[in-house]
Structure formats: structure tokens, C-alpha cells
Amino acid sequence: MPAQLISGREIAATIRSDLAERVARLKADTGRVPGLATVLVGEDPASQSYVRMKNSAAKEAGIHSEQITLPADTPEAELLGLVAGLNANPDIHGILVQLPLPGQIDEQKVLEAIDPAKDVDGFHPVNVGKLSTGATDVLAPCTPWGVIQMLLRTGNSPRGKHCVVVGRSNIVGRPMASLLLRRGEGGDATVTVAHSRTPDLGAITRQADILIVAVGRPDTVTADMVRPGAVVIDVGVNRVDAPDTDRGYRLVGDVDFDGVREVASWITPVPGGVGPMTITMLLSNTVDAFERSLER
Ligand code: NDP
């Protein structure tokens, strides 16, 4: 029997409607709503479209959202000044600086300037450090945090399972491993992390009860590399040529979907899998950051 599909679209819609209710309740209780500021430097079309999507999703959930767009030649000091202003703004609880930034700006410096309590992307070293030491009161990076929600909401708790993560980036692979390793709900897994220097990838991935692939290369994982009955989460998004389509390309993940779905018990499609979860967890982090600000 082919694997059951894990629909990120459906899970994201459920979480967003729960978030909208939470925001409405908070508004009734406090007279205030969570605020998200997105900062875009330059005119990269992909970044523009991500930021637009993030803003409209925030508005739909009842979150106050401000989009700040700066010209591509903005000096670093000006951006740092803007971030300082947002840190001090009591109506803003989440700050997102869209990456990549133009060359004259040191990305790490900007990420480190964001108040960790407002760091809804979870990239500030304080949040990275807290997460890797197992803290639960932390804003976690949105993509791996979304993967955890997908697992929990399909009854595939990582607890006690062997989870293999392929990829060790700061955005996906590493925080994914930290989340799976954390004590408590969504964690408590035995975790192996593989990467480009792993000699026999299949020998490692075949051990996985839950296999999470974040590489950025189509067909990195094929059916022979998956243990029968495993849960497979495909984070990858790759464009492949498709001259027969209007756009001339189609999106595929890192996993050979058609082959692997015959072996796995659950699998995420691309598109419609992990993708829709990322923005949803950004909204969730913004609401969490707002609630924590009320407690302080
Ligand atoms: P990076 O390029 O930063 O990291 C890729 C990782 O894969 C690296 O750790 C690399 O190893 C490893 N790798 C590369 N080739 C191999 C191989 N042949 N075998 C095993 N491991 C390999 O990418 P990201 O983590 O940022 O993104 C990964 C994918 O996920 C991309 O397709 C990206 O588009 C997608 N993505 C999707 C998101 C979503 O919302 N759905 C969000 C973020 C990313 P090494 O460290 O040794 O170089």
C-alpha cells in the first residue's frame, strides 16, 4: 500500500485557524494584538514574494503586520538603526529581516542586533544556543519547528524513534536535530545527522524510523535507501526543467517521491508538504513572542 500523504497545506490551515482564534482571544483580554515587522532590503523578486506572503498570512490571522522596504544600497548602520527602533517598539513582537542581504551588509551582525525575544526566525545566537542546550522557552527556526508539528499532528511522535536528518545547515538540519533531541513533546528521539561527507548515506538512512531530508538536490533519497514503513519528510525544494509546463519548470523535493511512497508509511509531497508550514510557524512564533511579552 502506498504511503499516506502528510498534507502540510491541511495542517497549516488548521494551525492558522487556531492561531486566529488565539489572537482574537488575546485581543479581547488585553486590547492588543501581536505585531510582526518584516524588513526587506533590495528588490530580489523571490524575497519580495516571500515577504508579501508572510504579511498577508499575518493579517489573515489578525496579527498586526508592518512591511519595511529599503533600497538595495542601504548602509549597514541604517539597517541596524531600524532594527534598534523595532526592538524598542512596544507594538512589535516579532522582527524578521529577509535574507539574503546585499553585500555591503554583514548578515550575522544584523541577526545579532535583533532582540532575542523578538527573533521570530530563531536565528539569533542566544536562541540557537538555548535550543541546542535543550531549552523549551525558545523561539525555534520555523522550518524544523513546522516539521515537528507535522509529525505530532499525524500521530508520528519522534519519542523513542531513530530520526535521521540529512543536512546540517543552520536553517534546517542543525535546529531540526536539536528539536528532535530535546526532552519532552516533539523530542526525545535518538538522532543521527548525515551530510555531504557521510560515506554511505543509504546505510544510515535505512536505519531511520523517521527520515528528514534537507539537502537541496533532487533524488538524494531513493526507495532503496528507505526502511519499509518509515516516515519520510522531504524539506527540499528544487526547480527541475519541465518544458511542457507554462512556467518551464516544476518543483520537486530531495526525495524520489514516486519510488519512496511505495516503501514509506507516511510521506510529505513537494509542493504542499513542509513549505506551507514554514510561514505558519512564523505566525505561531509571533503569537508566542507576544504572549511572553505579556508575562514579562
Ligand atoms: P544548505 O545548502 O544550507 O544545506 C544543505 C545540506 O545538505 C548541507 O549540510 C550539505 O552538507 C548537505 N548535503 C549536500 N549534498 C549532500 C549529499 N549528497 N548527501 C548528503 N548530504 C548532502 O541548504 P538548506 O538546509 O538551507 O536547505 C535544504 C533544502 O531545503 C533546499 O532545497 C531548500 O530550498 C529547502 N528549504 C525548504 C524550506 C521550506 O520552507 N520548505 C525552508 C528552507 C529550506 P555539507 O554541510 O557537508 O555541505
Query: In the CATH scheme, what's the topology name of the largest domain?
Result: Rossmann fold
Largest sheet composition: 6 strands, parallel
Low-confidence stretches: none
> What is the number of helices?
10
Radius of gyration: 19 Å
Shape: globular
Separation of the first and last Cα atoms = 51 Å
Overall number of structural domains: 2
CATH class of the largest domain: Alpha Beta
Q: Structural class from helices and strands?
A: alpha/beta
Mean pLDDT: 97
Bound molecules: NADPH dihydro-nicotinamide-adenine-dinucleotide phosphate
Spatial strand arrangement across the major sheet:
1-11-8-7-5-6
Strand content: 15-25%
**What is the N-to-C succession of helices and strands?**
EHEHEHEHHHEHEHEEEEHEH
Please give a structural write-up:
This protein is α/β, with parallel strands linked by helices. Helices cover 40% and strands 16% of the residues. Helix 1 runs parallel beside helix 10, helix 6 packs across helix 7 and helix 6 crosses helix 10. The longest helix has 23 residues. The chain is globular and about 55 Å long. NADPH dihydro-nicotinamide-adenine-dinucleotide phosphate binds next to helix 10. Pfam families: THF_DHG_CYH, THF_DHG_CYH_C. Its EC number is 1.5.1.5, 3.5.4.9. Belongs to the tetrahydrofolate dehydrogenase/cyclohydrolase family.
